[in-house]
């Protein structure tokens, strides 16, 4: 009896110590975590996933009788997956990776194969078959695999064609290729299958302009650089937005502090707007400000000479 009481005391003591402070233990995983990110215009696309290996197993195919989603071993209540069971059974929801569900994050509204997806964080799931896959963007971003997947929380489903390739990809991977100024193709690659879908930004200029407006609006009272940078992009890229907004941001920058940079920028854009005399007068002022600030004005002085000569700049 005394020995039992002592043992009970030790157990209670250890449990109470565990309750006081717990440390998070990190150990190697067979399927290691990875992340890829691509910026399209000013929109970030990030995919975070775990990378299972082929390891000589059969990856794709029809499920065995009784085999459920995620390759779960349910036959005869076995604790291990049967040797002849596929890892990713056709017709079942799959986490498109391993461990936690793959996450897909976009910082702005995008199009997925032409269909709208709002900015946000999603869990990425798939339903593979031999000839067609469903790609699912689910509103519950953080979940373990697809075991608690709720189709009622799907935000978007698209259908894509898998591409069978000859070269084996041992570890599952995601990549962005090809990439354009307004789009990026996502490629899920594992074993001898590549599954592509395209993420595109409907209007890069409009998205950029919205962010510039927000940045200028949030700028501190003594910040002359932010409105200058915003104006420079708008006026240099011939954005369909009203040029008056870009010029207004230049005026805001100059009002905070007259510098060689903002004065010379406004001079240049006035000239391009056909206001030659006004541009030259402001250009002379910019050169004087630059010399006061000990800035390198050589390149702009050459541009100013071209303005006076009526050259195209």
Describe this structure in words.
With 313 residues, this protein is of the alpha+beta class. It folds into 2 domains: 32-200, no CATH class; 204-309, Serine Threonine Protein Phosphatase 5, Tetratricopeptide repeat (Alpha Horseshoe), CATH 1.25.40. The chain has helices at residues 2-20, 204-217, 225-236, 243-256, 260-272, 276-292, 298-309, and strands spanning 32-40, 43-51, 60-61, 88-89, 102-106, 110-112, 115-117, 120-128, 133-138, 154-160, 163-179, 183-200. The chain has a 6-stranded antiparallel β-sheet with strand order 1-2-5-8-9-10, with no helix packed on it. Strands 7-6-12-11 form a 4-stranded antiparallel β-sheet, with no helix packed on it. Helix 3 packs antiparallel against helix 4 and helix 6 runs antiparallel to helix 7. It is elongated and about 85 Å long. The N and C termini lie far apart (98 Å). The model is unreliable at 4-15 and 71-79 (pLDDT under 50).
């Amino acid at each position: 009896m005394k020995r039992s009481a002592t043992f009970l005391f030790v157990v209670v003591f250890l449990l109470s110590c565990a309750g006081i402070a717990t440390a998070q233990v990190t150990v190697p995983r067979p399927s290691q975590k990875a992340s890829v990110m691509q910026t399209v215009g000013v929109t970030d696309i990030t995919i975070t996933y775990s990378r299972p290996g082929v390891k000589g197993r059969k990856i794709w195919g029809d499920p065995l009788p009784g085999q459920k989603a995620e390759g779960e071993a349910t036959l005869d209540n076995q604790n291990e997956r049967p040797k002849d069971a596929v890892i990713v059974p056709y017709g079942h929801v799959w986490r498109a990776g391993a461990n936690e569900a793959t996450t897909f994050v976009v910082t702005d509204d995008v199009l997925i194969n032409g269909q709208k997806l709002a900015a946000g964080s999603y869990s990425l799931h798939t339903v593979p078959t031999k000839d067609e896959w469903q790609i699912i963007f689910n509103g519950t971003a953080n979940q373990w695999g697809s075991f608690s997947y709720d189709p009622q929380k799907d935000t978007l489903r698209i259908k894509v064609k898998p591409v069978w390739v000859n070269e084996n990809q041992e570890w599952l991977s995601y990549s962005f290729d090809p990439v354009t100024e307004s789009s990026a193709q996502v490629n899920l690659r594992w074993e001898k299958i590549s599954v592509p879908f395209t993420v595109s930004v409907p209007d890069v200029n409009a998205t950029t302009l919205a962010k510039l407006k927000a940045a200028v609006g949030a700028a501190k009272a003594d910040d002359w650089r932010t409105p200058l940078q915003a104006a420079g992009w708008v006026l240099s890229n011939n954005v369909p937005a009203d040029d008056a907004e870009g010029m207004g941001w230049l005026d805001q920058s100059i009002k905070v502090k007259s510098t060689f940079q903002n004065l010379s920028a406004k001079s240049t854009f006035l000239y391009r707007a056909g206001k030659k005399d006004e541009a030259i007068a402001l250009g002379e002022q910019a050169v004087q400000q630059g010399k006061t600030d000990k800035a390198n004005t050589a390149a702009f002085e050459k541009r100013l000479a071209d303005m006076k000569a009526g050259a195209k700049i």
